[in-house]
């Protein structure tokens, strides 16, 4: 459910930003790209190349959607921690979340910097991401206080959202960008498998 939720939100937002196909056909250049600089003055060509350093709307939109998805995922991760009742399970999940959050926070900071966002916007996004897990822990503690069928249904739905957002962010946002670069493919795969094995081992450790 979380997978489809984030997917639908992103596709709807991108569809609103993209021009219609008929408008794209009408605005297509009639001359080849290489012939345009020869016909235009040098001042116009230099001025047209300057906005490339500014953040693109599509890049800022994707960065914002990634922050919202990660914030939702962090809240649901905290919810999973708050729903734990046994002390050993709490310690195992907390340790796994600490390792996971460090890697995700580092990747999020790199993603925001690559999106050419301003430093105050990057700091605000990271602050929002950091605050969501404690909020989820409090919500999970409140849900775990009840043992009725509604609480169990709510717990199952929220855990499904957490798993879906994790799958979406991992397999459609982070991994395609990292594995799409041709350099260092084997080390990236090794680190990916090592991280998965480490978190899995932590979850099975008897504390």
From TrEMBL:
<feature type="transmembrane region" description="Helical">
    <location>
        <begin position="60"/>
        <end position="82"/>
    </location>
</feature>
<feature type="transmembrane region" description="Helical">
    <location>
        <begin position="186"/>
        <end position="205"/>
    </location>
</feature>
<keyword id="KW-0732">Signal</keyword>
<feature type="signal peptide">
    <location>
        <begin position="1"/>
        <end position="15"/>
    </location>
</feature>
<keyword id="KW-0472">Membrane</keyword>
<dbReference type="Pfam" id="PF02535">
    <property type="entry name" value="Zip"/>
</dbReference>
<keyword id="KW-1133">Transmembrane helix</keyword>
<feature type="transmembrane region" description="Helical">
    <location>
        <begin position="156"/>
        <end position="174"/>
    </location>
</feature>
<dbReference type="InterPro" id="IPR003689">
    <property type="entry name" value="ZIP"/>
</dbReference>
<feature type="transmembrane region" description="Helical">
    <location>
        <begin position="89"/>
        <end position="109"/>
    </location>
</feature>
<feature type="transmembrane region" description="Helical">
    <location>
        <begin position="121"/>
        <end position="144"/>
    </location>
</feature>
<dbReference type="GO" id="GO:0005385">
    <property type="term" value="F:zinc ion transmembrane transporter activity"/>
</dbReference>
<dbReference type="GO" id="GO:0005886">
    <property type="term" value="C:plasma membrane"/>
</dbReference>
<keyword id="KW-0812">Transmembrane</keyword>
<protein>
    <submittedName>
        <fullName>Solute carrier family 39 member 1</fullName>
    </submittedName>
</protein>
């Amino acid at each position: 459910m979380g997978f489809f939720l984030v997917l639908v939100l992103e596709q709807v937002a991108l569809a609103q930003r993209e021009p219609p196909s008929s408008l794209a056909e009408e605005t297509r250049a009639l001359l080849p790209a290489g012939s345009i600089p020869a016909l235009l003055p040098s001042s116009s060509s230099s001025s047209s190349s300057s906005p490339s350093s500014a953040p693109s709307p599509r890049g800022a939109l994707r960065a914002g959607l990634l922050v919202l998805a990660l914030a939702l995922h962090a809240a649901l991760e905290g919810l999973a921690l708050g729903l734990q009742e046994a002390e050993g399970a709490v310690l195992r999940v907390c340790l796994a979340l600490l390792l996971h959050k460090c890697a995700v926070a580092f990747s999020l900071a790199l993603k925001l910097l690559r999106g050419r966002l301003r430093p105050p916007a990057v700091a605000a996004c990271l602050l929002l991401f950091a605050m969501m897990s404690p909020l989820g822990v409090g919500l999970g503690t409140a849900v775990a206080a009840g043992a009725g069928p509604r609480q169990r249904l709510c717990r199952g739905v929220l855990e499904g959202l957490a798993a879906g957002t994790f799958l979406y962010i991992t397999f459609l946002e982070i991994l395609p960008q990292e594995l799409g670069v041709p350099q260092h493919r084997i080390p990236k795969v090794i680190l990916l498998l090592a991280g998965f094995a480490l978190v899995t081992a932590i979850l099975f450790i008897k504390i």
